[in-house]
Amino acid sequence: xxxxxxxxxxxxxxxxxxxxxxxxxxxxxxxxxxxxxxxxxxxxxxxxxxxxxxxxxxxxxxxxxxxxxxxxxxxxxxxxxxxxxxxxxxxxxxxxxxxxxxxxxxxxxxxxxxxxxxxxxxxxxxxxxxxxxxxxxxxxxxxxxxxxxxxxxxxxxxxxxxxxxxxxxxxxxxxxxxxxxxxxxxxxxxxxxxxxxxxxxxxxxxxxxxxxxxxxxxxxxxx
Length: 223
Prior knowledge:
Layout (H helix, E strand, L loop, with lengths): L1 H13 L2 H27 L1 H17 L5 H13 L55 H4 L8 H11 L1 H55 L10
GO cellular component, one term: cytosol
Keywords: Cell membrane, Disulfide bond, Endosome, Glycoprotein, Membrane, Transmembrane, Transmembrane helix
Membrane topology: Multi-pass membrane protein
């Protein structure tokens, strides 16, 4: 997006038709892809959820190696009070948390999955030995609901906020395409007017030179 914005700024500063058109088409294509992606995600909601769960499981495998994913996953689990992708057992995909792994993390979940009060002292081993147990037996210890379902439910409960966010993203892009089209039209009109003025000026100069040549020694313009 930085490159697209740079092209737009440069095009507006230089009044370059090619750059303006490139900016408009790129922005229009991005807007079209976003709309199509949103529609497809809604139509194939189950497939979208499965796709998200698969990607979360792959991220869980490298949870301790990918710091960016770790921070995002920890934030989501704490804010949405959830654990894993589909459910808390997804953490068995991690080599440190699978039940056959050596070490204290085996068969457990990260502490961000744990249910705790704000006044409690953080216990990083609160999810110890929970993966191999049934959901009902651990629901008072950890969040047993998966994060994809938790986030989806939050979206449905706060659809007005999400609609506002989506409009805040899409409307500026649509206005960018519309204003680019209007600006291109205006620049083309100015160029056409300039060329017309030049052609009229050249015609007037040629007519003036012809009249002067036929005026004779009195230098009078012919009637």
